[in-house]
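User: Can you help me understand a structure? I only have the sequence.
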Amino acid sequence: MKRVELAQALGIHPRTLDKFIEEGMPVRVRGRGGRPSEYEEAEARAWLAVRNDVTPEDDAPDGRRAQREGWRVALLEQTFKARQRKLIPAEERDAAWAGETARIAAIVESWRTSLAPDALSVALKDGPGGVERLLAAKVDEVLRELAGLPMEER
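Assistant: Let's start by predicting it. Here is the structure, written out as tokens:
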């Protein structure tokens, strides 16, 4: 197959084909003495698939159609979930996340004043092991609070 024929078969401009040849696309027979080079379409498609990191199956019309159909289905599912409010807009998510992180920061910040006197007395009485138990209990308490567990389970 000649250069122009291969370019048409691949759906690209002949200059683009020249660029690909410079990049290493295989040439079946190099042209010499006024004779044009010859190319193998299957080899050219395989080279392009590797170059573009696409498998030959994906490059086939059915493969591309299936890929597009998969994207369309995913978009429809996402739209459906958004309408059911199972997905929320990024702005709402960001606002909710900011509120939660502020709440967590306030709880952790409150440790500084509420935990310090207890930690000191436990350290003097029970040593490092006692302080470790106190901190573990406080972490457990905060995690239960953040999880929204009822008071009787705290």
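Now, to help you interpret it: The chain has a mean pLDDT of 84. Helices lie at 3-10, 14-23, 41-51, 56-59, 61-83, 90-147. Let me know which part you'd like to focus on.
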